[in-house]
Design a protein that fits this description.
31% of the residues lie in helices and 16% in strands. It has helices at 23-26, 29-32, 46-49, 53-66, 83-91, 104-116, 130-138, 174-184, 198-202, and strands at 73-76, 96-101, 123-127, 145-149, 188-193, 212-216, 225-230. Strands 3-2-1-4-5-7-6 form a 7-stranded mixed β-sheet, with helices on both faces. Strand 1, helix 5 (83-91) and strand 2 form a beta-alpha-beta unit. The termini are far apart.
Length: 236
């Protein structure tokens, strides 16, 4: 039985119910979740943070195709209300998916939403800081894992920067993310603002592996993003 729904987990059935600052995102609700009318739950901040479903599906497809066959576990470090996590589960590529978020309300929404898509049984959920969870629970899985992270960008304010300085990203800078991630596994992918400073990313290349940056966007969606792939991904 599903736990009682927290008041912060909301399903808006009409535009009139939506706070004014989120109304433009409500118009995109079917791009965010095609099953929105089935009762998708969102926190207010998820309206501008969740990856649109077609973009999440394409990222999941790309990661599934390019990941070495020895990697069978996907760790989603900032799962939010489940947009990317659900897409990874629907790809059918992973033996198990571990999803982490420090927002308990977001985790509640994500669990509910994953059930609506019929993939809840494929996902293990962790509430807490992703770095703590990795250290306490997931380190032994590193050799079998790929890590994905769509970290907070500091809210919609990133849109005002023609070139986004990743050292100022809040609450975690690029270096604060890459250090712990590299200690866990070789292959990891970060979803970052499309205006991210490519020179900063190029400076993070290690060993013989090139960094691949792919721009994902869709017509009519506010969120456009750059997915940056580190490690031995084998893209066609």
């Amino acid at each position: 039985m599903e736990a009682p729904r927290p008041s912060e987990c909301k399903y808006y059935s009409s535009l009139q119910e939506v706070p004014r600052e989120y109304q433009k995102y409500y118009h995109q609700r079917y791009s965010l979740f095609s099953k929105y009318d089935d009762g998708i739950l969102m926190t207010d901040s998820a309206w501008f943070g969740v990856t649109p479903e077609p973009v999440a599906n394409k990222i999941a497809e790309n990661i599934a195709e390019a990941t070495p066959s020895s990697r069978s576990i996907l760790i989603d470090c900032f799962s939010g209300v489940g947009g990317n996590t659900i897409a990874f589960a629907r790809s059918g590529r992973w033996k198990r998916i571990y999803a982490i978020d420090k927002d308990e309300n977001a985790i509640h929404c994500a669990k509910h939403n994953a059930e609506l898509y019929g993939v809840g049984h494929q996902i293990s959920w962790f509430h807490g800081d992703c770095f703590d969870i990795i250290n306490s629970h997931l380190t032994p899985l590193g050799n079998y894992s790929v890590l994905f992270a769509s970290p907070p960008w500091g809210g919609p304010s990133y849109q005002t920067s023609p070139v986004f300085d990743l050292s100022t990203m809040q609450p975690y800078s690029l270096n604060q993310l890459l250090g712990p991630f590299r200690r866990l596994c070789q292959e990891h992918a970060l979803l970052l603002p499309r205006t991210s400073d490519l020179r900063q990313l190029a400076g993070e290349s290690q060993d013989s592996h090139q960094i691949r940056a792919t721009h994902y966007c869709m017509e009519g969606a506010s969120k456009q993003a750059l997915c940056v792939y580190f490690g031995a991904f084998n893209f066609p």
